[in-house]
């Protein structure tokens, strides 16, 4: 490994010799002194170099100092350098209260002087040059937060004896809606990219796994250009046995989110305040719950009419229900429950006393839906009838229906979009900002 100290670790060191490395963010080339802001993956530090503009003939030291000065003068934004120097703590320095006096500077990889993007570049332009866009502190923080959030989710489940599974993303048939599937050639037949691990995480229930989770890619051939849709995304899924109703799923779901947001606040709360300008709040449980019928009434009472023909909420309706939850319950989260059977998949369990309603929910967060969950129908005769009611041929569901012919406990779970959670948690305008490399209807590169 190249000898260096991460910039974030400099504050814990005493004054003295130090080696740092990173890329050049800014250069202030003054007549008598040069300042460089050097950034690495952990933070930024100010470098200072007393400028030498002329060398004394025959003086090797002054020649070396001149070479360093000229090298710094020629540094372009983004150039990677390795610096050996002297660390000095100085509270007058605005950037972290310390600086490094340059002893020797080596250009490891020079950057082209004119960068293709700027702070005011459009989002599409920035995505074209994503590797440069990701260099800024905000983007770095977003993906550190994502790492902590995922780790906290996993920790919650692992500590409760859930099994992590990795389900295939190549499928022989549709898991939910064939209309939203990507189709591809697969040797002598046709395969589809999985839009959900739904069937496979349910398979773990008759397999006796009890409780499972997965954090993995999913694909949807949805030609949508909204701020919250993608054709490839990270889905956070869980499924577990021996539930009494979807209330059990909701209770687990809110605990997972509290665990994740708590971990993020503990590790990055101060940084979020500094970079995003707000204090991250850990939600309290239970989250408020309203039925879909009640949600429709809340929206109507607010003076808005949902224009969807299927009776589901539209984005504006979701925003209004979320605003109601914030006003009346002080909550950024709200469960909308008991969805109409007509707008839910065939495998959602129906109400025992009203087959027009399902034991299901959507979870809204800061004005948008982030997840759908439900109790699954585990009785094969009922499941078959519900599939036929939806116009599906049970013969095409044979391998899936087989799960339920050999015994399966009552079970349920949810699927949640990771990027949506990050977007709404951090107040970003689009999932494109919180997705490492976004994929949409017109974007396959970089």
UniProtKB/TrEMBL annotation:
It is an enzyme of class 6 (ligase). Its EC number is 6.1.1.23. Keywords: Ligase. This is Aspartate--tRNA(Asn) ligase. The lineage of its organism: Bacteria, Bacillati, Actinomycetota, Actinomycetes, Micrococcales.
């Amino acid at each position: 490994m190249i000898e260096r100290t991460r910039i974030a670790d400099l504050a814990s060191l005493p004054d003295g010799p130090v080696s740092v490395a990173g890329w050049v963010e800014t250069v202030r080339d003054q007549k008598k002194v040069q300042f460089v802001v050097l950034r690495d993956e952990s933070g930024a530090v100010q470098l200072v170099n007393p400028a030498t503009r002329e060398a004394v003939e025959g003086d090797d030291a002054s020649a070396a100092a001149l070479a360093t000065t000229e090298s710094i003068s020629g540094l372009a934004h983004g150039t990677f350098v390795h610096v050996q120097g002297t660390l000095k703590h100085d509270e007058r320095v605005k950037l972290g209260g310390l600086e490094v006096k340059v002893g020797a500077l080596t250009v490891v990889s020079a950057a082209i002087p004119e960068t293709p993007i700027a702070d005011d570049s459009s989002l599409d332009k920035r995505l074209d040059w994503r590797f440069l866009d990701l260099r800024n502190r905000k983007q770095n923080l977003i993906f550190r937060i994502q790492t902590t959030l995922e780790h906290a989710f996993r920790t919650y489940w692992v500590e409760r004896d859930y099994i992590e599974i990795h389900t295939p993303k190549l499928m022989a048939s549709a898991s939910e809606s064939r209309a939203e599937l990507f189709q591809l050639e697969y040797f002598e037949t046709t395969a589809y990219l999985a839009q959900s691990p739904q069937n496979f995480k349910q398979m773990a229930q008759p397999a006796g796994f009890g409780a499972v989770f997965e954090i993995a890619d999913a694909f949807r051939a949805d030609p949508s250009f909204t701020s919250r849709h993608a054709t490839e995304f990270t889905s956070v899924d869980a499924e577990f046995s021996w539930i009494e109703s979807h209330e059990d799923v909701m209770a687990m779901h809110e605990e997972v989110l509290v665990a994740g947001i708590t971990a993020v606040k503990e590790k990055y709360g101060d940084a979020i305040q500094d970079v995003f300008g707000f204090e991250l709040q850990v939600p309290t449980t239970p989250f408020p719950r309203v039925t879909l019928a009640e949600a429709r009434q809340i929206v109507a009472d607010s003076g808005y009419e949902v224009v969807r023909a299927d009776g589901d909420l539209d984005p504006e309706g979701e925003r209004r229900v979320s605003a109601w939850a914030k006003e009346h319950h002080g909550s950024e989260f709200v469960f909308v429950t008991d969805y109409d059977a007509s707008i839910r998949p065939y495998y959602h369990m129906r109400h025992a006393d009203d087959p027009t309603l399902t034991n299901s929910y959507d979870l809204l967060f800061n004005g948008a839906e982030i997840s759908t969950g439900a109790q699954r129908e585990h009785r094969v005769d009922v499941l078959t009838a519900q599939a036929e009611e939806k116009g599906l041929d049970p013969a095409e569901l044979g391998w899936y229906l087989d799960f339920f012919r050999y015994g399966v406990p009552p079970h349920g779970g949810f699927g949640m979009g990771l990027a949506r959670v990050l977007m709404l948690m951090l107040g970003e305008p689009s999932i494109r900002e919180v997705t490492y490399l976004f994929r949409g209807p017109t974007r396959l590169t970089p």
